[in-house]
Specification:
Length: 285
């Protein structure tokens, strides 16, 4: 079967990003004390700086900074607390990095302040549930990641149910794209994330990955974030700190299927997997 990945160009502030030439890697930088993977390891400013620089050196194309945990059962934090967590990190890492930094938030106040600190992309796991988020993205002409999530992090794993998970997520994205465009955001600035692990069972997550190419009907870049998720642990019967091999398997599958971006904790091994898969597909280097 012939393979032809869709290509797109993003305008990320001072960065122009070509998606589709290669699979881009978004490295996760949690400025939280209760992340499900790193348990607050990079909560301090100096540790966050070191980790961000390490991910850039290992080949990350974006660094995604978040100050509110979205693990299952997580309690929301206030705007003030989220700003207290992320602003010192952004102030420290943005000037030091040669790659775009994104802000992982669903709060308009946090997004606007983060933009003032130099972020180049908004990653909204609630997909503009707050209408002002779309207006901010349109005002600054920044790209956004719109993610699908059933319910909220606090309740999302309480009996998630779909009649047809992929079809329902596609309908969700169509509605969110139309709403964002109506708010003034260019469709060309929208990236889609089907939300692996966010209000889905193991079977739902596997169906999304198995049929991931069906999302390309939306003609937008696709991001997959499966790194260290609980469905990997359930399939392999492994704790969160032993799920690297399973996470890399999802990356390899996503790359082979033509996904444009992957969001991961372990950048170095991910970049190596991508390079190998893309070399094999191309039949040479």
């Amino acid at each position: 079967m012939n393979f032809c990945k869709q290509t797109f160009e993003l305008s990320c502030g001072r960065f122009k990003i070509q998606l589709g030439v290669k699979t881009h890697v978004m490295g996760i930088l949690n400025a939280t004390p209760d992340s499900f993977t790193d348990q607050g390891k990079y909560f301090g400013q100096s540790d966050a700086i070191s980790h961000a620089l390490k991910m850039e050196e290992e080949g990350a194309d974006f660094i995604d900074v978040g100050g509110e945990s979205s693990r299952p059962g997580a309690q929301p934090v206030s705007v003030e607390e989220e700003l207290r967590r992320v602003l010192p990190v952004l102030e420290a890492v943005v000037p030091r990095l040669k790659i775009p930094v994104s802000i992982d938030t669903c709060k308009p106040e946090v997004a606007r302040k983060a933009i003032e600190y130099g972020v180049s992309l908004i990653n909204d796991i609630q997909a503009f549930n707050h209408p002002e988020m779309a207006e901010i993205a349109a005002e600054y002409h920044l790209p956004v990641v719109l993610m699908h999530m059933q319910k909220t992090p606090e309740t999302m794993q309480m009996s998630p149910h779909y009649h047809s998970v992929v079809e329902e997520i596609i309908l969700f994205f169509e509605a969110k794209i139309n709403a964002a465009v109506s708010a003034g955001l260019s469709k060309e600035q929208i990236i889609l994330d089907p939300g692996i692990g966010f209000g889905k069972t193991v079977e739902h997550n596997l169906k999304i990955l198995h049929s991931v190419e069906e999302f390309f009907v939306l003609n937008r870049p696709l991001l997959i974030g499966a790194s260290n998720k609980s469905f990997i642990g359930k399939i392999l019967d492994l704790p969160v700190d032993k799920r690297l091999a399973g996470s890399l398997a999802t990356v390899a599958w996503a790359v082979w299927k033509g996904v444009h971006m992957v969001r991961v904790h372990e950048v170095g091994p991910t970049v190596n997997v991508i390079r190998m898969i893309e070399a094999i597909r191309a039949g040479g280097i």
